TrEMBL record:
Residues 23-36, 569-592 have a biased composition (Basic and acidic residues). The chain crosses the membrane at residues 79-97, 133-155, 225-244, 503-522. One of its GO terms (cellular component) is membrane. It holds the Pfam family ResB. This is Cytochrome c biogenesis protein ResB. Residues 1-36, 563-603 are annotated as: Disordered. Residues 8-22 have a biased composition (Acidic residues). The lineage of its organism: Bacteria, Bacillati, Actinomycetota, Actinomycetes, Kitasatosporales. It comes from Streptomyces liangshanensis. It is found in: Membrane.
């Protein structure tokens, strides 16, 4: 009985003390939570980035809800970065694997050499990456994602520019950067001085009650928006260039010309929306090609001069203009660019028939096979030649040319220097059908001898002879001759491109770099200054700052501002030393700061 009474009397005491402690803790937690919410509001909207939503919290009730969730995911910055990475990754095979729209011959050679992987590449559309379904899908999704990111962020940022910085929190000590002192100056004078200093430092500032609120660093968000807009400009420019571009090559011998029409090109490629009528009506003539080379030292044979002197007209009624086209210095005419991409030699030959009548005379371009311009090609006489019976016949000569004869190696001539120091031409003669009448395209630099009969020398071998300039090869049986003339011309190959959108692409690239630099190196931050009269009549000045991200520059800047303001409102002579913070209060302060950074800064 007594035991029961003891239990009954001690139990209330054991429960009363914990209940009071719990109530005190709850009160402190509620106060801290209120402060954190207040500081979170002060630190909000330091970024225009939308809140990220978890993939696991999508709507489950309606198709419209799922569509809204998918749109939010597509227009998130995370997805945009993933798509940008995939676009860069998808461009790799376009650089490593031959592309059909660039060089069909290389694609054919690749397929012939790699019979195992070529069907797989065909299925994956790797021979035309930039027009493939999967690359276009990534491209379009990225385009939509960027637009979906930019529009809401732009309106949000415009709203922030029109709005005032948020009011000062009640407890500035909770902010990451904080300082305080006591001064004899009046609170109104301190606030006016703070407002003036902040405005001189290009802060957007205003006085509100007992505090001054200021904000700076809007160029950070401006840089973000400029960067994303520049990406859209780049995408549009790239798409425009691919759809409306034209690109072709032309080999021109000295003295010959080129007119910008489709039939004049040796090879031509264009975008799917290109219109032939949009070709710029210009023409040019190659007057002279000049190339000089290093004559001694370890870099012997290295080109020193590489240029083509031309005269051109920009239209049928335009007067002639002179220009010099160099490597990486193209001629620009009416939106088209003429690039110099290569050169070689074109020996001049004269072919005569049995009656000593000229049936062919002109420069024959030959293709170089090494750095010293050892060159090969074919001379074809299609019309005008007849055999001894008076029937139409065709002549073909396999040509091998060296600009500086260095002898023979392994039975073949080779050149020791790229300049015309000792030019030599070797010819092998054939007659019969060249195959040009079959209707099938053939390489003008190769001689198809399958339907031709070689001329024979006295020993019964194929008639061949090495000629110096001015010498000739006489065909057996009075069949005619071919003369290697002393005049040796050079040829230059030009690439004529029309790429609309290049100017916009360059502008977008520069703007993207500028915007990225601004978003990386400019910090958006807020500063508050509070000046109130203390209980003892002395003014208490508090200054605090909050940035979008952790940076040593914010405390430094706040210290500089505080020093400037302190010069106008110096510390009171009788101000007591600031007391050390209570360890428990310091722990609560660290917790609140961490909460502000998570809830306010990271938004």
């Amino acid at each position: 009985m007594s035991t029961t009474e003891s239990d009954s009397t001690t139990e209330p005491d054991s429960t009363t003390e914990p209940d009071s402690t719990t109530e005190s803790e709850r009160s402190a937690e509620a106060r801290d939570a209120r402060d954190v919410r207040e500081l979170g509001a002060a630190g909000s909207q330091l970024s225009t980035a939308p809140r990220e939503e978890s993939l696991l919290t999508g709507p489950t009730l309606s198709v419209l809800g799922w569509a809204r969730w998918f749109w939010r995911q597509l227009t998130s910055m995370r997805v945009a970065l993933i798509l940008l990475f995939l676009l860069s990754l998808g461009a790799i095979p376009g650089s490593l694997i031959p592309q059909t729209n660039v060089d069909e011959l290389k694609v054919a050679d690749f397929k012939a050499k790699h019979t195992t992987v070529s069907p797989i590449y065909d299925q994956l559309q790797l021979f035309h990456v930039y027009s493939s379904v999967w690359f276009s899908a990534i491209y379009i999704l990225l385009f939509i994602s960027l637009i979906g990111c930019i529009i809401p962020r732009t309106w949000q940022f415009v709203g922030q520019l029109r709005a005032r910085p948020p009011r000062a929190p009640k407890r500035l000590t909770r902010l990451p950067a904080y300082t305080t002192w006591r001064t004899a100056a009046e609170p109104e004078a301190v606030r006016e001085a703070a407002l003036s200093i902040l405005k001189r430092r290009r802060f957007r500032a205003y006085a509100d009650g007992d505090a001054v609120a200021a904000e700076k660093g809007y160029l950070r968000e401006t840089g973000n928006l400029i960067f994303h807009v520049a990406l859209i400009v780049l995408l549009i420019s790239f798409a425009t260039g691919q759809l409306f571009k034209s690109d072709g090559g032309k080999l021109v011998v000295e003295g010959d010309g080129f007119s910008n029409t489709l039939t004049q090109y040796d090879d031509f490629r264009s975008g799917s929306l290109f219109n032939m009528d949009s070709l710029a009506p210009f023409s040019f003539t190659l007057d002279k090609f000049t190339a000089t080379y290093e004559r001694s030292g370890p870099q012997i044979g290295t080109p020193r001069t590489f240029q083509a002197a031309i005269h051109y007209t920009a239209g049928p009624r335009d007067k002639e203009h002179k220009a010099v086209v160099k490597v990486n210095e193209p001629l620009e005419v009416d939106g088209s660019k003429v690039f110099l991409i290569g050169h070689g030699y074109a020996p001049v030959v004269t072919v005569r028939d049995r009656a000593n009548k000229v049936v062919f005379s002109g420069a024959v371009p030959l293709l170089p096979v090494d750095g010293n311009f050892t060159s090969t090609g074919a001379i074809k006489v299609v019309n005008g030649y007849k055999d001894k019976a008076g029937k139409r016949d065709q002549l073909g000569f396999a040509a091998f040319f060296v600009p500086t004869f260095a002898g023979k190696g392994n039975g073949q001539m080779f050149s020791r220097f790229p300049a015309l120091d000792l030019p030599v031409l070797n010819l092998g003669a054939y007659h019969g059908s060249l195959g040009v009448d079959s209707g099938l395209a053939q390489n003008v630099y190769q001689l198809n001898t399958s339907k031709m009969t070689p001329f024979k020398d006295a020993n019964g071998d194929i008639l061949k002879k090495t000629l110096l300039p001015g010498e000739k090869l006489v065909l057996p049986g009075g069949a005619g001759s071919i003369t290697f003339e002393k005049d040796i011309k050079e040829w230059a190959s030009f690439q004529i491109t029309h790429q609309p959108g290049d100017g916009w692409a360059l502008t977008g690239a520069i703007a993207a770099i500028a915007g990225l630099a601004g978003s990386l190196f400019i910090q958006r931050r807020r500063v508050w200054v509070r000046a109130v009269r203390g209980a003892d009549g002395v003014t208490v000045v508090e200054m605090a700052g909050l940035g979008r991200s952790e940076s040593a520059r914010l405390p430094e800047e706040l210290a500089d501002l505080a020093g400037t303001l302190h010069a106008e409102a110096p510390t009171h002579a009788d101000a007591p030393t600031h007391a050390e913070p209570d360890p428990a209060e310091e722990t609560v302060e660290k917790t609140a700061r961490a909460s502000v950074e998570v809830e306010g800064v990271e938004k």
